[in-house]
Amino acid sequence: MKMLQEFKAFAMRGNVVDMAVGIIIGGAFGKIVSSFVGDVIMPPIGLLLGGVDFSDLALTLKAAEADQPAVMLKYGMFINTVIDFIIIAFAIFMVIKAMNTLKKKEEEKPAAPPEPPADVKLLTEIRDLLKKS
């Protein structure tokens, strides 16, 4: 029973929940980027290069035999994956850059001057009273 309570305390900590949300959103973002690369970016590039579909580019290392499939080096899929990575890395870079800019602006804000100690306040009041008389 104690182990269950410890696990519950561990799982409900903010860092674990934040990490889980980040992983889920990251997975969804990865799918979006893969679709963007495969369905939006690569077709025009392939068209410019003479109708080449990068995902179909492969080098056959061993031809298919009766009971075994062909052994292929699918470098076109690798090109798509590299483009996916570059887009994701750039998006993450932009998010971190924006966060750092906001953080820097926050740090640049001048802090409110600290309140003077009680004895300085008292001396200021005495000085002001002496000036009036």
TrEMBL record:
GO cellular component terms, semicolon-separated: plasma membrane
Transmembrane residue ranges: 20-42, 75-96
Keyword Transport: yes
Pfam families per UniProt: MscL
Location in or out of the cell: Cell inner membrane; Cell membrane
Membrane-protein topology: Multi-pass membrane protein
Gene3D superfamilies (alphabetical): Large-conductance mechanosensitive channel, MscL, domain 1 (1.10.1200.120)
Keyword annotations from UniProtKB, A to Z: Cell inner membrane, Cell membrane, Ion channel, Ion transport, Membrane, Transmembrane, Transmembrane helix, Transport
GO molecular function: mechanosensitive monoatomic ion channel activity
Tagged with keyword Cell inner membrane: yes
Its biological purpose: Channel that opens in response to stretch forces in the membrane lipid bilayer. May participate in the regulation of osmotic pressure changes within the cell.
Homology family: Belongs to the MscL family.
NCBIfam families noted in UniProt: mscL, PRK00567.1-4, PRK13952.1
Assembly behavior: Homopentamer.
Name of protein: Large-conductance mechanosensitive channel
Organism in which the protein naturally occurs: Ignavibacterium album (strain DSM 19864 / JCM 16511 / NBRC 101810 / Mat9-16)
Lineage of source species: Bacteria, Pseudomonadati, Ignavibacteriota, Ignavibacteria, Ignavibacteriales
Gene that encodes it: mscL
